[in-house]
């Protein structure tokens, strides 16, 4: 830095010492390469841990009420967690009662025994028969005293009535607790099916509290983001910020809501289960513990693996979605360069990764599910084998055996299943790290700050004092270097210079989008960093080259300039901006929606609305950054006169490449390499022969030649008669209605008088028809679709039929496992009433071996089911996404003009519809087959062993199904409300973040924050309603289960006593029916997914079946290149392969400069030499070679890291490398400075030699040498011919050339 230069630090808050200046003697130079602070920051970030937030810090936004709710919710979770093991006590006592009663019956069935004084004794006067003495042992039993067994005391009906009351009481308690709880997915265990417990609750108090906190976090985060300085946005992509506002905050919600209660409940169950085990029987507990870690380990590994693979799968899908969004947003560019199939392949490459992770996830889930079932059945075998020995040795009762076994096993499983909660906590903390750090970050430039001075009187003097600046995203490239320039009040100061010289950057510093790294910018002698920023920006009106409009009406867009402005002021501003006439031609006039990003308006219309928005602001400082660049000459002249009028008395800074627009400026400042190298009036600078002189000389050569021709043609008027051309009558056939909304041309009054009646007849009619069609399209609601037939869905899955067949076999076998469990479990209980020890041991050993066999079978079939259906499902999803994306890219461009086919909507449709179709195929088929097999086998078992008890239990199933159905319906409604509200909030945040510079310039940050916050109220209230409704439904469904158990065991006791039903059959039937009920609930839960799948498939098939009006994939058609042939008969791919185009606003893709240039020709491999050759022709090579990464430099989203001129030159290189037969140049050099334009124009002149070239230009000097010039108005050609002939005609073209409008 030169000696004596000034370095200005961040300004302190008012009232503090302002040690702002620092003097250094270090030399510096422009464009010097230094170590990037961004790299240092990235290195520091890499060294920091990903999680920097403690768990309890997640609750930093909880109020006292929230804390109270969480405490009560925790108590509920603890009670529910302890209830399951404690209920085992009741179940153990009930089991012992049944077994004791059965033993008593078996004892008294022996004729030699009798019940005397409530004790079983040998009958008196009983003598052994000869046969008894022969048998030996039987006779000697008479001399053995009987065990002290009671009889006649146990009334099984009475006991079962008491247990029924227990269940009713517990059911009522569970209903009360259940009101505060939500059910989750059923754990992979049927141990508790006969006891009526669900092992995965969510606490509604936690959910309600979390909803309140998450709402606060969303509001604070978006509010803080909207306060950030523009430099912060340069380093944080909009897509990333939107993801954080949705996905990351959802992760925080998971971590502070249901996952907390799940963890507390599971951990409580684990503690209580193990306590029960050690207290009730420590020996069996230690034996089970030998296997229990295997269950916990399996559950934990499965959860961690699935979470990891799911993350990778989602990441791959996110990349595919980003590709789809980028491609669909740039569909015109993709179509123009024939990149459809290339983009389909690029999209598919990301789908392959997602498919791979999805299949691995299915295999892992199948393996671990089978592994856990295998370990569980081994535990059954081990526990019943060892435990039966303890029962035979009279150490345990059968009830104690069940209490200890199930208590320890359930405890171990809950401990394993708590691991996903820890994963959710970690994910929440990781997400909160970035979110909370953003909330806590103090913006370097706080746009909503109330601090700072507000000057009582504003003159409008702007001055740059030795300002040095570089963008935060590219700190190694210096943009401004010791810039010193003064702008006097009331004067118009023009900034001129080549692209990248720092002109627009200087304007952004005045708006205080950035602060200088050194030096300062002052307003009336006050450092603008000490001024109130909202007040400062309210003084400024700005019109940019690429104006941003918001998705609302024209009137509202103008009203954004100044709140509370009247309609009269809006109309006045529109008239000043020459926008009034085209607005009044629209059917809805000022209430016409401009579309997303102003997409329904032409470039000129958008520019004029933006100018009106700036004028209605009545600014003291007017900043015009190529404000009229998008206008035709006539409109430009009118608007320029309006701008000349409104800038009187205002400080105005104008940036322009059309130097004729700033010729009369009070002061012209020449920029070069980030410095102001000259200043003065036009005449002074022309005499100095510096930067400005060079630019004017280059640009005026063409203008001078054109005007000289005009004068010559005026003098030789007689020659024009013979050269007169036919007019619009010859071109009636070219009239066509466009679906895209366009206004009448501003050149309409230039039509010669003889053609006015015809123009008046055809022009408006064409417009009115097209707009009526457009309005009709906009007002159409989404057409309802008939659900797609399952047969067609399966047809797309037909290549995977072997996988589906094997998967269905595995699912059917797995469906029969739970009913078989009920058989084995009840049989084990039956063995405990057998009095013969040898027979009892044989029975137990056989059953235990059967448990092992069933476990092995389940292990292998679970793997088969998991892998087979994940394979078929993922292949289907990939196939549908690929086909859908291919079909979208194959549609004609007009299809994308429909608001229902916006890039965001299509990307969402690809993601959701394709994945939802799996609800009717893939793993869902396995679940349905599993459930149906389970239900079928269970009902067969139940009706076979006791149809009466089965009928009683079945009476309760409709109530369970009813509560589940009502619950599902209510939640579906809430989910839809949430989706609509969050999509609305997402649209607001997306529009705000994408257009943050415009919003900051207008000072509308708080407006968008208020709009966003208003949209969040809906989801919050829905979450509160959902908590109450879901809690009531869950409590009712749990209560019904207990009531069903109560009635079942009570009626079972009656059947055992009065109809001789064996007690084991009661357990068998109840266990089987509850198992079938669980399966029925599981099957019914698939119904909404199944319905969604059919609707999604129908929408998908609509897309696939749609035949585009212009097919890009068809090779049909002639291979002629127009040449007298109808273009409709020419093959579309062939035709487009011969066309190169450069648009006014070029679209670049988020990849390297080299890849963007290569995109010009997707039919061949392009070498680096070809890329460099094209870049040289487009005057791009030297700029690229000055970048650190040269041709591998990423251009950013839509080329955001490059200037307009740099983007334009890349687009020109892209067209050149195509080597087209037809070259279309739509304002191809409009964004270039004069010097670059001249060079590029020469390159284009050379490139179009031997080619058919169509040029659209407002700078008439660029097209005066064209072979044919066609003048268009209202959608049809009114004049056609070479320049000389059209000048001789003295029609519309002549008026354009000779009018007072600038011709540059």
UniProtKB/TrEMBL annotation:
The chain crosses the membrane at residues 67-91, 164-182, 260-280, 286-307, 363-386, 801-824, 844-869, 925-945, 951-972. It comes from the Eukaryota. InterPro entries: AAA+_ATPase, ABC1_TM_dom, ABC1_TM_sf, ABC_transporter-like_ATP-bd, ABC_transporter-like_CS, P-loop_NTPase, Type_1_exporter. The keyword Transcription does not apply. One of its GO terms (molecular function) is ATP binding. It is found in: Apical cell membrane; Endosome membrane; Recycling endosome membrane. Keywords: ATP-binding, Cell membrane, Endosome, Glycoprotein, Membrane, Nucleotide-binding, Phosphoprotein, Repeat, Translocase, Transmembrane, Transmembrane helix, Transport, Ubl conjugation. Its main location: membrane. GO terms for biological process: canalicular bile acid transport; oligopeptide export from mitochondrion. This is Bile salt export pump. It comes from Gadus morhua.
